[in-house]
Design a protein that fits this description.
The protein has about 325 residues and is mainly α. It has twelve helices and no strands. Helix 7 packs antiparallel against helix 8, helix 8 packs antiparallel against helix 12 and helix 10 packs antiparallel against helix 11.
């Protein structure tokens, strides 16, 4: 049974989910370097132990939200019959390996544990002297839980009406990068939104690729993803835009904040992404896109590491 829940957690999605946290922490760490702080490879200021805690609590919180989202997706699609004829990896509820009640209980437990970790993260970051910030981030935590569940669960599941891309862009990109940066610095910088856009767009590209693979089955069962709405050809153009725009936003940030040639390290991550785009261009069998999901997800994780490292190397 534990093995089945591990499969339902879809561990291969976790590197993608923490990419925004890594970028946000690196950028906050670079700010510390600029003003004379002491950092390690992750841009964490060891002059203050709480900064180290913020990073790992943010990672655990994000992983919790991702696992909750994966459980909810498995549950929602399973009880609606969406996954009965799906391509790729089998889902646990639709296959009968996990009952709907068991999955619902797992969602409740995961949601509660994640919220507890999020509360600890908020307390460590803001303490008792920043009450308004604490309330704001608590509200964002609740919104994240609701959004993770409502993606496929319920009659008004937004993943069935083409709004999943917006959710991924906002939560995986903007909230992850800018939110993490704010946890450290207690302030906003408009340039931080540029790499946040990059991470959000790359994360959305993973979802779009998934929806391109499942387009025929989704249309059959009434799951009107954006790909179903715009069709296979325009979904490819949309995919090119997502990855191309992510590159341009990262490049723009690097030009604006240029201080070292090492900042262009992130270009390495776009080598496999360029090969991926060529594959998508030539591909005519949508089920073959399943193998590309891991490539884009891991390339996004690589981008986060290289982009971050490039910005903390003096």
């Amino acid at each position: 049974m534990i093995k089945n829940f591990i499969k339902a957690a879809r561990l291969r999605t976790l590197p993608l989910s923490v990419s925004g946290i890594i970028v946000g922490a690196f950028l906050a760490g670079f700010k510390t370097v600029k003003y004379g702080g002491v950092i390690d490879a992750f841009g964490i200021d060891y002059s203050f132990q709480k900064n180290y805690s913020i990073f790992w609590l943010a990672i655990l919180t994000t992983i919790g939200f991702q696992v909750l989202s994966n459980f909810a997706n498995d549950y929602g699609d399973g009880i609606k019959g969406t996954d009965d004829d799906r391509k790729g990896e089998a889902r646990m509820v639709s296959s009968g390996a996990i009952s709907p009640k068991q999955m619902k209980n797992a969602m409740i437990i995961t949601g509660v544990l994640t919220l507890i970790i999020a509360l600890l993260l908020i307390y460590v970051s803001f303490g008792s002297e920043n009450f308004i910030y604490s309330v704001l981030f608590f509200g964002l935590g609740i919104a994240s839980i609701v959004a993770a569940i409502k993606y496929t669960v319920g009659k008004s599941a937004y993943g069935y009406s083409g709004f999943g891309d917006v959710f991924v862009f906002v939560f995986f990109g903007l909230l992850a990068v800018v939110g993490t940066y704010f946890l450290y610095t207690k302030q906003l910088n408009f340039t931080v939104f540029l790499p946040a856009f990059s991470v959000g767009l790359l994360s959305t590209a993973v979802l779009n690729l998934n929806n391109m693979r499942d387009r025929v089955n989704d249309a059959k069962v009434g799951k009107n993803t954006l790909v179903v709405k715009i069709g296979a050809e325009f979904a490819k153009y949309y995919h090119y835009y997502l990855i191309g725009a992510s590159f341009l936003f990262a490049l723009l940030y690097t030009v604006i904040k240029f201080h070292s040639p090492f900042q262009f390290l992130f270009l390495i991550a776009y080598i496999p992404l360029a090969k991926h785009l060529f594959f998508v261009l030539k591909n005519t069998q949508e089920e073959l896109l399943d193998g590309e999901l891991k490539k884009v997800a891991l390339s996004t994780f690589l981008f986060a590491i290289l982009f971050g490292l490039g910005n903390v190397v003096l």
